[in-house]
């Protein structure tokens, strides 16, 4: 899955970027924080797990 598609789904679910340092960007909805790797393509299994944890 492309990183931009994953981020679009997270932002649609109410997440926003809170920190952008190091190898990950941290997105949060105020309660739960989720690190998103800075790769152009994110492994499908990893993307699925992120979406499952965030409910997006």
Q: Quickly count the helices.
A: 2
Number of domains: 1
| SSE order, one letter for each helix or strand | HEEEH
Which stretches of 5+ consecutive residues score pLDDT under 50?
none
| Strand neighbour order, sheet with most strands | 1-2-3
Roughly what percent helix? 25-40%
Largest sheet: 3 strands, antiparallel
DSSP, total strands: 3
Radius of gyration: 10 Å
According to CATH, the homologous superfamily is: Hypothetical protein
Mean pLDDT: 95
Cα-to-Cα separation, first versus last residue: 14 Å
CATH topology: Metal Transport, Frataxin, Chain A
What is the overall shape? Answer: globular
What can you tell me about this protein's structure?
The protein has one domain (3-54): Hypothetical protein (Metal Transport, Frataxin, Chain A, 2-Layer Sandwich). It contains 2 helices and 3 strands; from the N terminus they run H-E-E-E-H. The chain has helices at residues 3-12, 44-54, and strands at 16-19, 24-28, 33-37. Strands 1-2-3 form a 3-stranded antiparallel sheet, covered by helices on one side. A hairpin with a 4-residue loop joins strand 1 and strand 2 (24-28). The longest helix has 11 residues, at 44-54. The model has no long low-confidence stretch (mean pLDDT 95).
Give a quick precis of the structure:
The protein is built from 2 helices and 3 strands. The protein has 56 residues and is an alpha+beta fold.
Spell out the blueprint of helices and strands.
Blueprint: H1 3-12, E1 16-19, E2 24-28, E3 33-37, H2 44-54
Antiparallel strand pairs: 1-2, 2-3
